[in-house]
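Tokens as discussed.
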């Protein structure tokens, strides 16, 4: 194993949606390659022309690039085993198919679709599983490319090892004469990926659990072609939050780029997706990308399905936002400021950003958290009415508390309206009004921001400045 040259691959079909399951497969293959200073290859499996979505290939490249999952060979950068699109490798598949024909392990399928349907119906009527090999023609015609080319299978029992699932076995009953090349000249996935992996010297085949049922037929093809087996690793399903079914679009799963557009960091997505079915055996939950590359191992991937928990994703994003330096965060939030900040200075925006960094769960939160720093907020007295504590106070008392706050903060000099001076004044207000911080501070915070949440009150008032703070308190008093 120590002499093995590590070459892993991610081979998606360009069919539109770049979901977390696909990204996880790419990510784990990337970890294995990067950890061993090996190569990570991107290959596009576009043999099913009917399902291909225009622009999807570019979308795949964009998604991987946005997450920082870099490839060493691929359709956009080339490499020693180009081309890296299956639709451009048809002659390669025909050459390998000829080897099978010449060795007697492949033949032309002479049957019409109607005849195949009749065979299936007969099997159903006799309560038997349909196997094409039960109807294998004795003298098939020469293959000219106008009909499907099928494997002449060699049904047998198989035992093989999977790095995740362990030792597996199956009987001969699942082996069949599967199609290798379709009548349109394109290979099936079953044949093409084995040829491509062999030609590109792929060492590890890391893929989803949906392919495990086809593995015996793959092993039959490897034998027919005289190929050594690569290392297999099967990823468990990613389950919906309910935990009882595979995650799908209907469960709220989004394209990975949608998560980034919604203010999730690439580091978060990598950390979160890596944790879906893998852990390093410790209690650690927040990992940097270099840590993940260093610690990842296939033998720590769990066999059972991993539940997709969006609340955990949001929590994890907040943790990664806190790890960023202020300058780094500032560069990332360019498109997330409220419109009101368009003319604000960089100094003010950085000051505001420093205040709210610890409260951001996603970068999208920035607009609602900071709009009132740059524009006059609209009063929303339902926020007082829906607050359990403040709703119990009569308007007269609310007005008295705001008036006392207005007068006390008015005593602080404009030049010394610092968080420390403001906090000292607020603490004294608690004494003079006899109120609890949860009531007094919540009231002041609400009427100066009219936002559902905001940073610490002393810092909020200091950044707003004395004049603005007093003006908003006065406006609320007059409203009452």
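Sequence:
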């Amino acid at each position: 194993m120590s002499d093995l040259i590590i070459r892993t691959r991610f081979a998606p079909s360009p069919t539109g949606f770049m979901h977390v399951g696909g990204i996880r497969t790419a990510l784990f293959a990337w970890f294995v390659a990067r950890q061993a200073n090996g190569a990570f290859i991107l290959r596009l499996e576009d043999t099913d022309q009917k399902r291909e979505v225009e622009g999807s290939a570019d979308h795949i490249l964009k998604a991987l690039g946005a997450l920082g999952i870099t490839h060493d060979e691929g359709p956009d950068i080339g490499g020693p085993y180009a081309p890296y699109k299956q639709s451009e490798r048809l002659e390669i598949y025909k050459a390998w198919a000829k080897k099978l024909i010449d060795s007697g392990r492949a033949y032309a399928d002479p049957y019409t679709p109607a005849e195949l349907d009749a065979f299936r119906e007969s099997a159903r009527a006799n309560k038997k599983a349909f196997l094409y090999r039960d109807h294998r023609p004795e003298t098939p015609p020469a293959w000219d490319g106008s009909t499907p080319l099928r494997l002449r299978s060699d049904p047998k029992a198989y035992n093989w090892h999977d790095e995740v699932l362990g030792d597996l076995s199956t009987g001969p009953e699942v082996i069949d004469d599967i199609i290798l090349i379709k009548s349109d000249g394109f290979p099936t996935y079953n044949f093409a990926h084995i040829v491509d992996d062999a030609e590109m010297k792929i060492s590890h085949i890391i893929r989803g659990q949906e392919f495990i049922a086809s593995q015996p037929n793959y092993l039959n093809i490897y034998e027919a072609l005289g190929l050594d087996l690569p290392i297999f690793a099967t990823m468990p399903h990613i389950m919906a939050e309910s935990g009882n079914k595979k995650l799908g679009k209907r469960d709220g799963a989004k394209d990975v780029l949608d998560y980034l557009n919604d203010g999730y960091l690439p580091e978060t997505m990598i950390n979160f997706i890596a944790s879906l079915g893998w852990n390093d055996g410790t209690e650690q939950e927040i990992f940097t990308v270099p840590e993940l590359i260093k610690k990842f191992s296939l033998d720590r991937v769990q066999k059972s399905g991993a539940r997709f928990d969006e609340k955990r994703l949001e929590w994890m994003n907040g943790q990664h936002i806190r790890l960023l330096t202020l300058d780094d965060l500032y560069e990332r939030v360019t498109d997330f400021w409220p419109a009101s900040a368009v003319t604000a200075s960089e100094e003010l925006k950085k000051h505001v950003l420093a205040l709210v960094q610890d409260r951001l769960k996603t970068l999208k939160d920035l607009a609602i958290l900071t709009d009132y720093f740059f524009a006059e907020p609209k009063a929303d007295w339902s926020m007082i009415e829906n607050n359990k504590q403040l709703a119990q106070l009569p308007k007269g008392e609310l007005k008295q508390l705001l008036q006392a706050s207005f007068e006390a903060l008015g005593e602080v000099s404009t030049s010394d309206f610092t968080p420390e001076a403001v906090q000292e004044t607020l603490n004294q207000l608690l004494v003079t009004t006899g109120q609890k911080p949860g009531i007094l501070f919540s009231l002041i915070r609400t009427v100066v921001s009219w936002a559902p949440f905001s940073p610490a009150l002393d810092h909020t008032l200091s950044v707003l400045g004395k004049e603005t703070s007093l003006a908003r308190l006065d406006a609320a008093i007059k409203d009452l």
